[in-house]
Design goal:
The complex is a heterodimer. Chain A is mainly α. Chain A contains 18 helices and two strands. In chain A, 56% of the residues lie in helices and 1% in strands. Chain A has a two-stranded antiparallel sheet with strand order 1-2. In chain A, helix 3 runs antiparallel to helix 4, helix 3 packs parallel to helix 6 and helix 5 crosses helix 6. By secondary structure, chain B is of the alpha+beta class. Chain B is built from four helices and six strands; from the N terminus they run H-E-H-E-E-E-H-E-H-E. The longest helix of chain B has 26 residues. Bound molecules: iron/sulfur cluster (SF4) (5 copies). The site of one iron/sulfur cluster has 12 residues of chain A, from helix 7, helix 8, helix 14 and helix 15.
Chain lengths: 342, 193
């Protein structure tokens, strides 16, 4: 029997565990008491009181804004999970780039410019590392969720976080205008940098508290751009990455991002990663030159380095020239999941 | 669904299952000691400017200079209920400066003139020294330089002014630049109870 999984049967299978995870993540936490600041009372008995001051004096309230409401943190996690799901659906089932670009832009605006890039899954790697080695250090539930969700998504669908959710990736993705091909061996060699970076970041994160440093955050080239403020040299580095990124697709993602290293490791075992298949595509090799990230080898997307951007589909004669209806029968014949046909 | 699995598929499932279990375990481990909030705050008992017993030290202005924001997210806060409402507040007046015709020091501590002084309660029309005064810090002007905090400490002050992080302006940087620079390790995120 051909493997004939329609969207209707596939999505519940994967949405189930995902939703469960989110529910478990937040169900367990409950309304934990928020501890906003360290209470600090000096035993002052010489200070005048309302009575000694007289004339109906009322002690003014001390202005003390609260941290961002927990509801917003939950909203962030739900949005992240939803964006991951939508990215997977667009890249793997709809197989088209247009809406992926829209998702990318939306996530750049929200996670990047509105939320100003902190805390992000990339940086959270350090918090997680510290929490594992330092018993006095803990990360809040929502940061745990930020760290884990994209990795879980990578186990199912590959690097869909990079496809349209990560603001750092998004800002570079939108800059890829005139990509040139990087020699494969150079590309591969530079790819090791991200593991070195990851190792360095973990090393500095697990140092004793007084020497600890979060180098990923310290040298994040884009967060300053999201905030329109920051050290001048870092803003320039960020700008330089974007300018280089016009010609060399997503240099930070491909060669430096430490979380990208984890994502590529996890997506090696992805259940249904982004794919270029003879049954859905033409297998003509036109896409090879369309991929600005050198992620197509022998006419197949390499799951560990593909950002699921969908450019290859746009260059594909099948997706480009024909209407979806004429594609579906071919897909069904070959036993691939057809488009969701309402 | 009856179908045969290739060895590759089985291995893939096994690897994926293992990775999922690993992530689950990691999540559980972290979850057990997770804390609820993650906001940076200043431990006033450690900050050199407000710590009791730290007398004769130089003011630490890193809270105003290190923040990634142009105007730091740190402000001085007067905890009114422990304020002495002094006539000559050492955090308001530079008590070492020359005395003016009104009998008050002529210079102020705050370089940004962020503190407002106002007589409160029953006001003695003849002797201003007989009155109580509220010292209110203007949120929009203060940049958390900590000078007033240092002065409002023994021997002259009651320690009612301290530095606090403004949670509505703080960006919650995962790596707070001030925390990294604070020499007293006073800037941290509260640990789980
Ligand atoms: S490689 Fe890193 S920076 Fe690039 S999109 Fe993926 S997670 Fe974001
Ligand atoms: S193979 Fe290349 S072009 Fe195709 S989705 Fe992946 S990164 Fe984009
Ligand atoms: S950097 Fe530390 S010691 Fe200096 S003013 Fe800020 S909290 Fe106080
Ligand atoms: S902390 Fe500095 S700027 Fe703020 S009120 Fe005190 S002296 Fe003025
Ligand atoms: S977390 Fe960032 S914005 Fe907040 S006080 Fe520290 S450096 Fe300033």
């Amino acid at each position: 029997m051909p493997r004939c999984a329609s969207l209707g049967t596939v999505l519940p299978r994967v949405a189930g565990p995902g939703l469960l995870l989110v529910l478990v993540l937040f169900g367990v936490s409950g309304p934990a008491a928020a501890q906003e600041h360290v209470e600090y009372e000096r035993p002052v008995d010489v200070a005048p009181t309302e009575d000694t001051i007289g004339e109906g004096y009322v002690t003014p309230e001390v202005q003390r804004p609260r941290p961002r409401a927990a509801a917003w943190q939950i909203a962030d996690v739900v949005l992240l999970a939803a964006a991951l799901g939508v990215a997977a659906w667009l890249a793997i089932w709809r197989r088209q780039r247009g809406w992926l670009v829209a998702l990318t832009t939306a996530c750049l605006l929200y996670f990047g410019f509105y939320r100003e890039g902190c805390v992000c899954p990339i940086g959270s790697t350090q918090n997680v590392a510290v929490a594992l080695v330092d018993h006095t250090y803990a990360v809040p539930h929502y940061v745990i969720a930020l760290f884990v969700l994209p990795l879980v998504a990578a186990l199912f669908f590959g690097r869909v976080f990079c496809a349209g959710v990560c603001p750092l990736g998004a800002i570079q993705e939108l800059m890829v205008l005139k990509p040139v091909e990087v020699p494969r061996r150079l590309d591969k060699a530079l790819g090791w940098l991200k593991w070195i970076y990851l190792g360095t970041a973990l090393y500095y994160a697990v140092l004793p508290a007084i020497e600890r440093d979060f180098v990923i955050c310290r040298f994040d080239p884009f967060v300053g751009l999201f905030r329109f403020t920051g050290a001048a040299w870092l803003l320039m580095v960020g700008g330089a990455f974007l300018v280089v990124g016009i010609f060399v697709g997503r240099p930070y993602c491909r060669w430096l991002c430490p979380y990208g290293a984890l994502l590529s490791a996890f997506s090696r075992y992805a259940w249904r990663p982004f794919s270029i298949t003879p049954s859905r595509e033409l297998d003509c090799g036109l896409c090879q030159s369309a991929c600005p990230y050198g992620a197509i080898e022998e006419r197949r997307a390499v799951r560990t380095s593909c950002f699921a951007c969908g450019r290859c589909y746009r260059s594909c004669p099948v997706h480009h020239a024909e209407t979806p209806e004429s594609v579906v029968p071919a897909a069904e014949l070959a036993g691939r999941p057809p488009e969701a046909a309402p | 669904m009856s179908k045969t699995h290739t060895r590759r598929e089985v291995l893939g499932h096994a690897a994926r299952g293992t990775a999922l279990a690993g992530l689950g375990g990691l999540t559980g481990l972290l979850w057990l000691k997770a804390n609820a909030t993650f906001a940076w705050s200043i431990n006033a008992q450690r900050c050199i400017n407000s710590r009791l017993g730290a007398v004769g030290v130089d003011v630490c202005e890193r809270c105003s200079t290190e923040c990634v924001l142009a105007l730091s997210a740190v402000r001085a806060v007067n905890e009114f209920k422990s304020c002495g409402r002094c006539y000559v507040c050492p955090a308001y007046f530079k008590i070492t400066s020359a005395v003016g015709p009104d009998g008050l020091p002529t210079e102020k501590v705050c370089p940004r003139d962020a503190i407002k002084r106002e007589a409160i309660g029953w006001i003695d029309p003849d002797d201003p020294a007989n009155n109580f005064y509220d010292y209110t810090i203007d949120e929009t002007l203060c940049n958390g330089c900590g000078r007033c905090v240092l002065e409002c400490k023994e021997p002259a002050g009651l320690g009612s002014i301290r530095l606090e992080v403004r949670h509505d302006t703080c960006l919650d940087c995962n790596r707070c630049a001030i925390a990294q620079a604070c020499p007293e390790d006073a800037f941290d995120r509260p640990e789980p109870a």
